[in-house]
Amino acid sequence: MNKTLAIKLDAGRTTIILTAIMSALLVTHVLAMQANFNESLGWKDTLGFEYWQIAIFDLDEEESFGTWFSAVILLFASVLLFFIAACLRSVADTMHRWWTMLGLGFGLMSIDEVVGLHELFNSLYENLPWTTAGFILFVLAGFCFLPFLWHYRWRTAGLFLLAGIIYASGVIGIEHYSGTDINSLGYNMLTGLEEGLEMSGVILLIYTLLDFIGGLEAD
Known about the structure:
Order of helices and strands: HHHHHHHHHH
Radius of gyration: 19 Å
Shape: elongated
Mean pLDDT: 88
Strand content: under 5%
Largest sheet: none
Low-confidence stretches: none
Helix content: over 70%
Number of helices: 10
């Protein structure tokens, strides 16, 4: 394994940096949405701005800093997964297939952040919320990956499960109950919680992957 890569991508330091960026995005989102939708504060009248001027801070917007960051960390996780798969394949470890499938999955999720594939699903199947389909897919994926989780039981599998639960609770759980009134303060506060859980889950996964790479380096 590339020792330089392992040194540069320290799990703890990388996680702290990503968490700091995520926190800044969440705080900015909350302040922007409070300013725009909370009339009792009077910030919108005092500052005299329009929504389009702060839309880049709205985590629910496709064209925003938050969407870009989410897509980047999902892509980063995908690259790390493919890197691990390549390392294991080089030593004839058959588990590389599982890591490759995960890499493909997270690459697709990164694309979805920008392209909005799940919004397309909602348009095509209006009577079936994508969150319902997403929950079914999440359960099936968890079941299919039981051999993978059992192989890496304890630390790695536990962190994988925790990251998955945190991510799914945001992308499936909170979004399912957030409603459709995008012009309400409640909806936009729930959006902050939803996106925060999603980003937290991915950041924890990135920590898990870097921690795993560190273990391979030690071996």
